[in-house]
Design goal:
Length: 272
């Protein structure tokens, strides 16, 4: 009996269809046993793509990458999650360098237009921006394929969120990308537009957010002082630790979040 031998093109096509169907099963990404299978499949597909003209697989692989996006969210599966995220990244990098930034930009567009609905949207976008930045400059050299798509990527990636706390990772990734571009003095004309259209609006939003946080903290402290003033005196005759019990129970009124740490993080990545 002769063995069945499949061409790499056919194998990638079949694996892509099977993987999309596999990922459509409910909660499959939350189970460690399934994630192991998923990682092995992604690694095998990546090996096949490296040896083939991956251009012809772009439409089909786009569906696979979209189906895989949920692995970039914070599922509590420990080391297996790290492996799956690394395999997802390796799968994208298996394509020829010409097509990698196009795929990343396409994923952003699908999310931005709500064609694809995902949880933790800002977190996924942060991953995409970080991956673009990592491949933009490799070993001190600018990747020309990523450089050619940089202007379109900036115009696509800018999304403004109402809740700054949830979008903090994404905003930080944008500042890091702009900071890298400034350090290597690459496309400074583009960077000036980014400063005006992206960074300055973000700076203003973050500044307003920090001021609001300060006002909220001040209000919380005033409330805590008012509440504490109504605590009746405690007879500490025999129970010497009674006063400590009262004060510890009222610690819930004291705010624990500091805006100074957040402001330091934000200002670190702002380009004047």
């Amino acid at each position: 009996m002769q063995p069945f031998v499949f061409s790499p093109q056919y194998a990638v096509s079949e694996l892509a269809d099977g993987l999309v169907h596999y990922l459509s099963r409910k909660n499959v990404l939350r189970q460690c046993d399934y994630v192991v299978t998923l990682v092995n499949t992604m690694n095998f597909m990546g090996g096949l793509l490296k040896n083939e003209d991956s251009r012809i697989k772009l439409p089909q692989m786009e569906k696979v990458l979209v189906a895989l996006l949920p692995i970039l969210t914070d599922y509590n599966i420990g080391e297996e999650r790290k492996k799956s995220v690394f395999s997802f990244q390796s799968l994208i990098l298996s394509f020829h360098s010409t097509y990698q930034p196009l795929l990343l930009k396409r994923l952003v567009r699908l999310i931005k237009d709500h064609t694809v609905k995902v949880d933790a949207e800002a977190q996924i976008l942060s991953f995409i921006v970080d991956l673009y930045r990592q491949q933009f400059v490799v070993k001190g050299h600018v990747n020309e394929d990523y450089s050619l798509c940089l202007s379109e990527f900036w115009s696509t990636i800018f999304i403004k969120y109402e809740d700054c706390s949830q979008a903090s990772m994404f905003y930080q990734s944008l500042f890091l990308l702009a900071g890298l571009q400034a350090r290597i003095c690459h496309r400074l004309d583009l960077l000036k537009n980014v400063q005006v259209k992206v960074l300055t609006p973000l700076q203003q939003q973050l500044s307003d957010y920090l001021q609001l946080r300060k006002l909220q903290e001040k209000t919380d402290i005033e409330r805590a002082n008012i509440d504490l003033s109504f605590i009746p005196p405690v007879n500490c005759g025999r129970f010497s630790d009674s006063s400590s019990n009262v004060s510890s129970s009222d610690e819930r009124y004291i705010p624990t979040h500091s805006s100074s740490t957040y402001k330091t993080q934000v200002n670190k990545y702002v380009i004047d």
